[in-house]
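Chapter review: from sequence to fold.
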Amino acid sequence: MTNSVEYKGNDKLLFGIILGVLAFWLFAQTTLNINVDMAKDLNMDVSMMNIAVSITALFSGIFIVVFGGLADKIGRMKLIRIGFYFSITGSLLVGLTPVGGGAAAVLILGRIFQGLSAAAIMPASLALVKTYWQGKERQRAISLWSMGSWGGSGFAALFGGLMVNVGWRWIFFSAAAISIIGLIMIKGTPESKAEGKEHNKNDYAGIVTFMLAMIGLQLLVTKGAQLGFTSVAGIILIAATLLFSILFIFIEKGKIGAFIDFKLFNNLIFTGATISNFLLNGTAGMLIVSLMLLQVGGNLSAQEAGMLTLGYAIAIVLFIRMGEKLLQRFGARKPMIWGSLIVGVAIFLLMFTNVMTETYKILAIIAYTLFGLGLAFYATPSTDAALSNLPEDQAGAGAGIYKMASSLGAALGVAISAGVFAAFNVGDHIQWLEGVLTFVGRQDNVVVRQAAIIGLGVNLMMIVMAILFIMITIPKSTGKAND
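The token string follows.
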């Protein structure tokens, strides 16, 4: 193993890592837009497809802390390579999913491997950035890394929509190809581990109870309305989720070598950055609701809907370095708040589903662009605030928790938003909404438009909560270049 002082990160390593990040955020996340076409092609139930969409981020979130701690122990480069192997396997499974019988099993297995890939690559690569880059070079590396995650997610809907014409399977074959290229680019990089840290055995009890709690919650939000929350199955799901959540907290509290080290949350800045990161990523639900609305309620194709998100992608790529500059000038707090406010405005604009389709498309273009701008302002300051406040021997585990917040936030945000949208997209009109808004144009899709308002409203609540957490936990000077 080479000491971080002896080795300095270079762009070949950085861009190799970024390809691994893109395999998840750009390629795997296209399912937010192409899920309608995939479900038709594979003859899959919509609710089962919703599980396939969100399960990748769910498994990433479940295992990201495990792999982050493991990276500190066995080596960050080793975990990154394992992550690439997972990505290649998962992408090929999704691309080769058969039609009809067995489709759900193969697709979900492939999506799980894609989630495990992200769980391995993201915390290990962030810990590597903390170790092999310093000062402004680290902030640049974080900005470029963030382009892979936030920027990749920005292009995902557009990329997926464009690739539908070629064939959605080629998205995942391409993901396997870029993972192979990334694997080649990182070759020869010296290993990095946490120095002078005692490592305990893996906390299997904590991992299993956490996984069962999260799977129970995932099923509850995706299938709850369909099963009925007061049905026997619904009550069992609720009870199981609560039981495993309580067991997890009981097992982990004060435990040495715990799956999640709760002592990290004694650091208020790390806590605020992590929770707000969870909530900001939760607004990915905004994408699935609005894109489904445009396709189901507005009769747009996946490609047409995806094209509307172009401003989202461009704004992230153009302005994510601006987040870095704002961090250096103002510290982390202000750009994190500004970014969250801009995302809030974007969600609010999308809630005007009562207008004509052409008008809504214009609102969507503006909203998606603002969404990208807000995330660009938020990404680097938040990541730097979390990482710069971690001791070296906790870099992998802490980065794992921070990125767990990203993945679980995205998974639960998508699942909750899609679940709320599906629950209200049945039955009669919502009378109190019709008392507030007049729905012009077609009347046969009013229920869909009303359901979208409720689903988007959930995302707006997440933004309000994120801003409150930032204001309470992030001091004004955090992250300034002269600190």
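Two observations follow directly from the output. Residues 203-258 form one domain. The CA atoms of residues 229 and 465 lie 26 Å apart.
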